[in-house]
Design goal:
about 140 residues; alpha+beta; N-terminal domain of TfIIb; GMP Synthetase, Chain A, domain 3; 3-stranded antiparallel beta sheet; 3-stranded mixed beta sheet; 3 helices; 6 strands; about 30% helix; globular
Length: about 140
């Protein structure tokens, strides 16, 4: 387990009702109804935990991509990171798998792969999931 050298920020969110309830951050800026997706036998029509995880991972990864791009003096401001979070059975339990697709306009394929790999090495979400779930990073050159 990795210990933090210092805490820079702590996010707080609470949920009631599980997958068929509500979630809210302590500052009230995020407040969502939750419902299992129809693919899992639920009613759909509301956000689910996998969507929240996908949005958080995509945003965090893009932040990491920007940081490594700045170090290499490569503009990644027009990049797009898409996170696909899948859930499914693993024996008697359930598990997650993630596919991250990274698109960086104006760079060649080798540079795109290099930046995506470097972002994956420093992204907090990638570090939290590494060795725990399958995460595939796909780099798509749009040069």
């Amino acid at each position: 387990m990795t210990s933090l050298d210092r805490i820079a920020y702590t996010a707080r969110a609470s949920a009631t009702g599980g997958r068929a309830g509500r979630a809210r951050t302590d500052d009230g800026l995020l407040e969502v109804d939750l419902a299992p997706p129809t693919e899992m036998g639920g009613p759909g029509g509301a956000t689910n935990p996998e969507q929240l995880f996908a949005a958080g991972y995509a945003a965090c990864f893009q932040g990491a991509l920007g940081a490594v791009g700045r170090k290499r003096r490569i503009d990644t401001s027009g990049s797009l990171v898409t996170a696909e979070v899948s859930i499914g059975p693993v024996g008697e339990a359930f598990g997650l798998a993630v596919v991250l697709t990274v698109e960086i306009p104006g760079v060649d394929e080798a540079t795109c792969v290099e930046l995506a790999d470097a972002a994956h090495a420093v992204c907090p979400y990638s570090n939290a999931t590494r060795g725990n779930i399958d995460v595939e990073v796909r780099a798509v050159a749009t040069a």
